[in-house]
Amino acid sequence: MADAQMKNAFFLGLDSSTQSLKAVLIDSSFRVQGETAVNFDRDLPRFGTEGGVHRHADGLTVTSPALMWVAALDLLLDRMRDGRWPLNRVAAVSGSGQQHGSVWLVRGARQVLNRLDPGLPLEKQLEGIFALRDSPVWMDSSTTAECREREEKMGGAQRVADITGSRAYERFTGNQIAKIFKRQPDVYGKTERIALVSSFMASLLTGDYAPIDMSDGSGMNLLDIRRRAWDRLAMDVTSPNLAEKLGEPSPSHAVVGRIHGRYAKAYSFSPNCFVIAFSGDNPCSLAGLRLQKVNDAAISMGTSDTMFASIGTPRPSGEEGHIFVNPVDPEAYMAMLCIKNGSLTREYVRDMAASGSWDEFNRKLESTPPGNNGNIGFYIREPEITPPILKTGVYRFDGAGRSVEAFDPAAETRAVVEGQFLAMRLHARKIGISAEKILATGGASSNRSILKVMADVFGVPVYVAEQANSAALGAACRAFHGWLCAMKGSFVPFAAAMEGAPEFQMAFRPEPAAHRTYDAMLERYEELEKRIPKK
Ligand code: 5FX
Q: How far is the CA of 180 from the centre of ligand 1 (A)?
């Protein structure tokens, strides 16, 4: 039955990222049939965000208005309808969300979701459901005190990592929850449900509280990643009655409901359309890039840069990196590093050294030799996650290790790109990622000058996904996978579900001489990194 239905079916993936809400529609041969997006700053200027967020005066707190995500969903659906997307043939929808962000829903919100009206904008109907208007997002780094407290109460950073996959991190939702419980007890008290961005977006579609999936749930410092259940101690050190407010976590491939009648009426979805658990953007990218072999790694270059890979046995580090439950294989895990100074930092150097032009940036980058004549730069424009550096600043060292004020513009462009990949190579090794090939994705993966440096620093071939937006595509693939599992009545391996998906194109093989230069440079980089002020 599934085979006949599959031929005519479409699968929809949404990606609720920091700066935009995107949609990708695929057919059952994984061909992209439609793409559209809502950019928060441009399309919803009334929310006053910059890059999709509000940065608060303390320099550490970063939030987004939860209602903006609601308004964005209607606008996105309108664009799909106006673009005549065959929404009536969508068999399943799934989604991706920026990780760690939390949405706080007030008592009674569930009834409001249940009764969504097709004739009214979502924003009007849902403006009253939030216990907290401004949702903390992954860029927030204001919970250092809560992190230290968690590590102390749970028996140290390594112990927290052994249970939850990561030591306590400022942006991880459990620490954000602890902060709100402490500083805004009234908000905590009136909250019925705490959702992640991913599960919140799924809730808008099902018209009910959708569960947090186990993969995105691993980014909270609350889930026991081996038992795949909330950890009692981690919950107890956070806040009271938390399990009730979070609901039970669900496998990432599970059907969490059918689309609410509102969307059938207003956008002609089939009332049978399944909603598959939404997950985090990095887990969805892993699905979109079909990383299943150990040591197949990916580098996603967006607002943050991340490097990740599927792994079999989790060996969490009490110092850095993350282990999450794998989003497409309930037995496996994924290892990941998150580097906050990603595209905004590259853009800062592009503006400073290349008149704001990528063409000029690339020309300058290519005019300099691998190794940058020994110049190494650290561009910490935002408090950094990997390695943890809370104090912002730009630090430059010449070939003799002397601190210098500036490089010439060409050296500046190479220093930012080399520095980012050297940091990834250094820190990925420490969480057991030893890449044999790399799939590049995200905005900067279309920049070939940057990809060449990536291949040479890591010494492995670099491939690119045709679809730079792997999180939305991954969400669509997960919609297909979840639907297939539901139709077959049992778990179908993701690799089998994805048979026939297009191959990725190789962009670069490493140049051996350049790679040797980076081997030697890595040690110097590690030494210099230790000299950077961290707080
Ligand atoms: C991962 O841990 C992160 O914090 C970021 O990559 C966000 O998921 C970006 F949306």
A: 20
